Amino acid sequence: MKPLLSRVESKKVDKAAAMLKVLAHPKRLAIVDLLGKEDKMTVTEIYRTLDLPQAIASQHLITLKDRGILSSFKVGTKIYYSLSIPKLLDVIDSLEECCDTM
């Protein structure tokens, strides 16, 4: 087993912390949760479902895509987004359980 200090300073922990920082925004978390329930959605479907201004939704989608959390593909003029890391839903569920016990 590695000493605690070397595990804490590892790149893996740094990457996890960076991912949690991205997910820390409530709207980005809502987008991840929504796309975990749907196979794919367009920007329009996302911002209408979450009642967000289109520009705000687009900014969050770009941030999530840049971090590899979402992927996108284009069909005609529509861009569809989907969740690239389905295990993030387990994180959301775990956090929800923790909040229920607080």
3D structure, described in words:
The protein is α+β, with helices and mostly antiparallel strands. The chain is 63% helix and 14% strand. The chain is built from 6 helices and 3 strands; from the N terminus they run αααβααββα. The chain has helices at 4-8, 11-23, 26-37, 43-49, 54-66, 88-101; strands at residues 41-42, 70-75, 78-83. It is globular. The termini are far apart. It comes from Hymenobacter tibetensis. Keywords: DNA-binding, Transcription, Transcription regulation. Pfam families: HTH_20 (PF12840). Residues 8-102 form the HTH arsR-type domain.
Name the features:
single chain; globular; alpha+beta; transcription; Metal_resp_trans_reg; transcription regulation; WH_DNA-bd_sf; 102 residues
Measure the end-to-end span.
33 Å
* Rg result: 16 Å
What low-confidence regions span 5 or more consecutive residues with pLDDT below 50? none
According to DSSP, the number of beta strands is 3
> What structural category arises from helix and sheet content?
alpha+beta
Approximate helicity band: 55-70%
Order of helices and strands: HHHEHHEEH
Apparent shape? globular
The DSSP helix count reads 6
Domain HTH arsR-type: 8-102
InterPro entries: ArsR-like_HTH, HTH_ArsR_DNA-bd_dom, Metal_resp_trans_reg, WH-like_DNA-bd_sf, WH_DNA-bd_sf
Pfam families: HTH_20 (PF12840)
Protein name: Metalloregulator ArsR/SmtB family transcription factor
Write a short abstract of this structure:
This protein is an alpha+beta fold. The protein is built from 6 helices and 3 strands.
